Structure formats: C-alpha cells, structure tokens
Amino acid sequence: MDADWIPFHPNPKKPDFVLPEGAVDAHCHVFGPAETFPFAPERKYTPCDAGKDKLFELRDFLGFQRNVIVQATCHGRDNRALVDACRAAGDLARGVASVGPDVADRELADMDAAGVRGVRFNFVKRLVEAPRKDVFQRIADRIAGLGWHIVVYFEAADLEDLVPFLESLAATIVIDHMGRPDVTKGVGHPDFRRFVDLMGHNENIWSKVTCPERLTVAGPPYDDVVEYAAHIVELFPDRVLWGTDWPHPNMKSHMPDDGALVDFIPRIARTPMQQRKLLVDNPMRLYWAQD
Ligand code: 0GY
To answer: Which among 4, 25, 28, 29 is the best mutation to test ligand 1's pocket, defined by most ligand atoms within 8 Å of the CB?
Structure first.
C-alpha cells in the first residue's frame, strides 16, 4: 500500500527558538505502522508509516517535553495506534480520539486510563463522509461524564452554520487551525471576524494557532499566516494551543521542516509570557491538570 502524500521531513533543522521548559506539542499524529495498525478502509488518503518512535525522537530533537496525539481520519475510529503511543509515552502524552455514539463504556474507560482526554469532531467534507451534528451530539453526551473536551475541525465557510451547534456544547471546545481562515482575505474580513467574535463571547472555546503550512498561500516562511495567529494569541492568550501537526497528513503542496515551524512560534507569540501560556500553561491545564 503506497502513501499518496509526501513523507515527513527526513532531517528537520534544529530550531533557533529555544522552547520553554515543559513545552507541549499539542497537535501531532501517529500513523501505523500499517502492518500493526492498519489504516481505515474508508480513509480519503493513505499516509506513510509515522509511528510513535519517530514522534518521540522528533519531540526530543525539537526540545518538546510532551505530546498531544490527535486521531486523524486515515485511522477512522480505530484508536489503537493512538492509545498504544499514549501508553508507551507514559505521562508524556495525552490523546484525542475519534469514537462513534455506540462506543462502549469500557472502551472509553480504557482510553481514559491510557491518557485520552478528548474526542475529535471532523466536519471537513473532503476528509469524512457526511458528518452529522446529531451523531456528534450523542457522542458529546457519552463523554460528558469523563471531563473530556471536544476538538473540532472545519473549513472557514462552514463556521456560520456550525456556531449554534458549537455554542450548545457544554464541554470545552478546541478549534483546529483557527477555523482554517482564507489568509488572502485579511484579519478584518467578516469570515475571520466571525471566528474572533465566537471566541470573544464564548470563553469555552479555544483555538489551535497551528498549521501555517496548511493555511499559507505564499508558502514558507508563512509570512501570510503570521497576522492571523498573532491576533488570536494577543486576544486570547489563555485559550490557545500550538502543535507541529507532524507528520503533516495529506499535505500535497510541500512538506514543512518541523524545526522551521518551531521558529515560527516567536513570530505569533511575541512575549515570553505569551510563549509560556501557549506552549506550557494552557496545554498543561487542559490535558494534565486532572491528574
Ligand atoms: C490535520 C489535517 C488534515 C487531516 C486530518 O484527520 C485528518 O485526516 O486532520 C487535513 O487534511 O487538513 O489537522 O492534521
């Protein structure tokens, strides 16, 4: 089975930016190895193998201390690779899983014990077949007792339709990649303003200021994304998270250098205080505080 996207960067640069002590890479994935953890038959892309050992190697090389591993669609609702990686990392990783409304209590309890602290609702139509709010609502009900949060992934054009649903959820909501703004439009465009307003009047909603490599039109060093992420960090310093997105699933234009991505951080979190909140305090509060 051949991967249909470019493999992750084989030898990223050592970042110039020195991460604060205890920094968390709060958005990354593990894929396979396919021989042990097969990819989902319904997947929309086939990744290369990117197992836990590679992820932990990268964590140490870049200077992170912890990972939050997020289930991606190529593994469907089979969270075994994710759970295996969380268990292997011990206290140094947490997970965000993908489940159905019929998930067994026992399975949820096992995942919780392994370090899973949230579920992901993926509304991106090119990645998942017909995502349904009523199904996600039932999943939200199932995880309510666990104190987990909900990570939501959608494209900017879908936000207006999603706002009532997002506001109806009682759990903390974390939105992937700033709701994927169109960075050619400017931070003053009504689409991005809608996202900022949503965060502004709902303290339950967090954002990952991640994935300049996905949002950029200009390409590296992602100058066209800086303003968007810096704006969110400036306004909501206590509700932002950052992650590498390694191994960058489904990237077709170019493969980012993960060291260069780390060097992007001081451009969007410009003070040591903002950096500390983004990289340490916020992810620790959301993923490790209960322990
Ligand atoms: C990401 C991005 C993508 C893929 C997935 O679950 C996934 O398959 O998240 C994407 O294609 O935008 O957030 O890592």
So the answer is: 29
Structure tokens at 219: 């390409």
Which of the listed CATH numbers 3.40.50.300, 3.40.50.12780, 3.20.20.140, 3.30.1330.10 matches domain 24-287? 3.20.20.140
Q: What is the pLDDT of residues 30-81, one digit of tens each?
A: 999 999 999 999 999 999 999 999 999 999 999 999 999 999 999 999 999 9
Cβ < 6 A, ligand 1 pocket: 72-74, 122, 127, 153, 176, 214, 245, 249-250
CA 234 to ligand 1 centroid distance, Å: 26
- With beta carbons less than 8 A apart as the criterion, state whether 131 and 121 touch: yes
Strands (DSSP E) found in 184-239: 205-208
Q: Encode pLDDT of 131-152 as tens digits.
A: 789 999 999 999 999 999 999 9
Ligand 1: which of 6, 75, 78, 127 to mutate, judged by most atoms within 8 Å of the beta carbon? 127
- Report the percentage of the chain scoring pLDDT > 70: 99
Nearest to 71 by CA among 54, 92, 93: 93
